[in-house]
Write a structure and sequence with these properties.
The chain has 125 residues and is mostly helical. The protein has helices at 2-18, 24-27, 35-41, 48-80, 85-118.
Length: 125
């Protein structure tokens, strides 16, 4: 299990560094940030809510990728188990937990975007 988390963390780090939409310098907040830097990070929208929503959505997107990978892995274990009880049960558990994870990710995505969009006066797209 530790190996899976290490691989996932490595993938996340590589994705964060090489992503075109979220550069490491634009998505981080430090004590020296000014409103101009926030506007730059949010594509001239200038809202801390927008910046928070973008950062949270990035992490939820990454979690969705991990959950999808776990569905693929669980399905592979289930199919290749050859009817052995251990492989079938392990594959079923992984598929169930990945499905629950996807439901939680989608729910948290909806809640975060609804709450952060509610007070801004903009329509939800």
């Amino acid at each position: 299990m530790k190996k899976i988390f290490a691989i996932a963390f490595g993938f996340f780090a590589a994705f964060a560094v090489f992503s075109n939409n979220y550069s490491a310098s634009a998505a981080m907040i430090n004590l020296n940030d000014a409103p101009a830097n926030v506007r730059e990070a949010t594509n001239s929208e200038g809202s801390a809510r927008t910046l928070a929503r973008k950062i949270i959505n990035f992490f939820l997107y990454f979690l969705g990728l991990i959950a999808t990978g776990m569905v693929i892995y669980g399905g592979f274990l289930y199919i290749t188990s050859g009817g052995e009880d251990g492989g079938v049960e392990k594959g079923k558990k992984i598929l169930i937990y990945a499905a629950i994870g996807i439901i939680l990710i989608l729910t948290s995505f909806a809640i975060v975007n609804t709450l952060l969009q509610a007070g801004s006066g903009n329509e939800v797209i």
